[in-house]
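Dear colleague,

Thank you for sharing your sequence with our group. We've completed the structure prediction you requested, and as agreed, I am returning the results in plain text so they can be pasted directly into your records. Please verify that the sequence below matches your submission; if there's any discrepancy, let me know and we will rerun it promptly.
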Amino acid sequence: CFQRTPLAFASTTHRALFADRVVELPATQVDSGPAEGWMRMPLPDRDPHPCDYEVPPGEHCSARCPGCGPPWYAADSACPANCAKAFPGLPSVASADPRLFPDPLGGADFHSFAIEDTLAVPSSLLPGEYVLGWRWDCELTSQVWSSCADITVV
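Please find the predicted structure tokens below.
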């Protein structure tokens, strides 16, 4: 999954792809340190319960997401929760502050668009079949999402 050949971003912008339009968004890229080369999601988190917790044995998460109920109980190890209720002492609002991180898409339904980034393929990479891997690290929870795609370099 390109672990031996990390790919750099080829642009300093993201593209929000809607069915009827494309919106360019400025990118925030990490330029140094252990996360060098990573790019931040261009949209703020407005989730009222951005924390998660592991449900105690014998109990199940009450979230109503696909796969969260029987027979899979997929959210039992990362059940969504209001941060302040699940972890007393935290602020009552843990989402992004709109004064500091305004929403560049004006609150558009996140199901109505996709975010696109462009990568630079090194000229030294030989043509052939590859597997491209990428991951998303959640900013406010312990979740890490990963995915792969078969690609052909010509």
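Summary note from our side: The beta strands are 8-9, 13-18, 22-26, 51-53, 79-81, 113-116, 119-120, 128-137, 144-153.

Kind regards,
the structure core
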